[in-house]
């Protein structure tokens, strides 16, 4: 676990233009000084991410929001007040303090206050904003432990703060509040139902975060193994067929079928609770990769509560891959 010495060291790395991986309640982030274009460029390089993909600026508290955006609309104030610190990212009009490198050239900026003691201590020790995507290579599964980060990014990151496993396990919910009507660009750790209860109105959900960033391949949040989605009651039969035709099959077994014998190379039983499912999802996909599976058979949960974010990630993981 990170000590106060680690936090001072990490803040120094950020000040010197380096990269620090840090825990948040959702997933680990790969952070750079948001106001340093060269440091931000290193984030894209380390991830192998196209430079037109905007990053999230992490800040220490809701009262700092006005420093990073042009104006704070009433809806943003309401949502920040209710959900920060927390797994909610707000997209607002970019303030002059935010370099275009951090927003992929967009005139908007994504901002959030993470709900993790180590992240908040880092932000406080550093004093500025930390631009951070998830600390994984572009397109792959987000890391939910410090070991995942080290395994995936190695020397590309200057310092890794260890805050233990992430509590939420899927990324933040991204809400665009630049228009008259707020819309969800990516479902995540804060549920649509909770947002709607606070807003007092239904929310439009765009099932990918790409609406503002077109032209990329759809596969994302993906393990090395190919992911196939079937109906829950077909998972066992699909796994057997694929295993018998020579695949090394990994199974995310729906909780309704817990205990049912499955012919496959590796089986992970999905927890009944959506909280636990979200927390374990990425670790399970990594585990199936580690065990050498070349195909993962899974099904989608009910798309309510955290199930909406889980289904979104599974669909993206099952999307067509880049060739080569
Ligand atoms: O939970 C999280 O959000 C984690 C932790 C580290 O905070 N971060 C994360 O970052 O998931 P990343 O870069 O993997 O995903 C950020 C998403 C991207 O899909 C990006 O397109 C979207 O946020 N985004 C960032 N700025 C945006 C903007 N100005 N307009 C629309 N989408 C934006
Ligand atoms: Mg990511």
From TrEMBL:
Q: Which residues form the YrdC-like domain?
A: 4-190
Similarity comment? Belongs to the SUA5 family.
InterPro entries with a match to the protein in the record: DHBP_synth_RibB-like_a/b_dom (IPR017945), Sua5-like_dom (IPR006070), Sua5/YwlC_C (IPR038385), Sua5_C (IPR005145), T(6)A37_SUA5 (IPR010923), TC-AMP_synthase_SUA5 (IPR050156)
Question: Which species is the source of this protein?
Answer: Saccharothrix saharensis
Mainly localized where?
cytoplasm
Which residues are ATP-binding? 49, 108, 134, 186, 221
Q: Function, please?
A: Required for the formation of a threonylcarbamoyl group on adenosine at position 37 (t(6)A37) in tRNAs that read codons beginning with adenine.
Q: GO MF terms on file?
A: ATP binding; double-stranded RNA binding; L-threonylcarbamoyladenylate synthase; tRNA binding
This protein's UniProt keywords: ATP-binding, Cytoplasm, Nucleotide-binding, Nucleotidyltransferase, Transferase, tRNA processing
Any one Gene Ontology cellular component term annotated for this protein: cytoplasm
Q: What is the name listed in the Swiss-Prot or TrEMBL entry for this protein?
A: Threonylcarbamoyl-AMP synthase
Reaction it catalyzes: L-threonine + hydrogencarbonate + ATP = L-threonylcarbamoyladenylate + diphosphate + H2O
Q: Which NCBIfam families match?
A: L-threonylcarbamoyladenylate synthase (TIGR00057)
- Protein EC: 2.7.7.87
Gene Ontology biological process terms, A to Z:
regulation of translational fidelity; tRNA processing
Subcellular location(s): the record lists:
Cytoplasm
Entry binding sites for L-threonine: 26, 58, 112, 132, 142, 172
Please give one Pfam family short name.
Sua5_C
């Amino acid at each position: 676990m990170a000590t106060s010495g680690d936090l001072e060291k990490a803040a120094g790395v950020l000040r010197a233009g380096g990269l620090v991986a840090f825990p948040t309640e959702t997933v680990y982030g790969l952070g750079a000084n948001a106001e340093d274009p060269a440091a931000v460029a290193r984030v894209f390089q380390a991830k192998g991410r196209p430079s037109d993909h905007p990053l999230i600026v992490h800040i220490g508290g809701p009262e700092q929001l006005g420093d990073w955006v042009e104006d704070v609309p009433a809806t943003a104030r309401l949502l920040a007040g209710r959900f920060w610190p927390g797994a909610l990212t707000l997209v607002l009009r970019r303030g002059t303090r935010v370099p275009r490198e951090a927003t992929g050239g967009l005139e908007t900026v994504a901002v959030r206050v993470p709900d993790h003691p180590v992240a908040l201590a880092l932000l406080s020790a550093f004093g500025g904003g930390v631009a951070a995507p998830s600390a994984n290579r572009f397109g792959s599964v987000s890391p939910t432990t410090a070991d995942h980060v080290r395994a995936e990014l190695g020397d590309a990151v200057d310092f890794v703060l260890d805050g233990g496993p992430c509590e939420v396990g899927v990324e933040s919910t991204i809400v665009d509040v630049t228009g008259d009507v707020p819309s969800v660009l990516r479902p995540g750790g804060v549920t649509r139902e909770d947002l709607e209860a606070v807003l007092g109105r239904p929310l439009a959900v765009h099932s990918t975060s790409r609406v503002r960033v077109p032209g990329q391949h759809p596969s994302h949040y993906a393990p090395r193994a190919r992911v196939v989605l079937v109906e829950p009651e077909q998972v066992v039969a699909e796994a057997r067929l694929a295993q018998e035709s020579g695949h090394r099959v990994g199974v995310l077994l729906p909780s309704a079928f817990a205990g049912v014998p499955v012919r496959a190379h590796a089986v992970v039983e999905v927890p009944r609770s959506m909280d636990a499912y979200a927390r374990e999802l990425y670790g399970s996909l990594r585990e199936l990769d580690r065990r050498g599976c070349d195909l993962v058979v899974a099904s989608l949960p009910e798309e309510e509560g955290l199930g909406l974010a889980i289904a979104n990630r599974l669909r993206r993981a099952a999307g067509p891959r880049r060739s080569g």
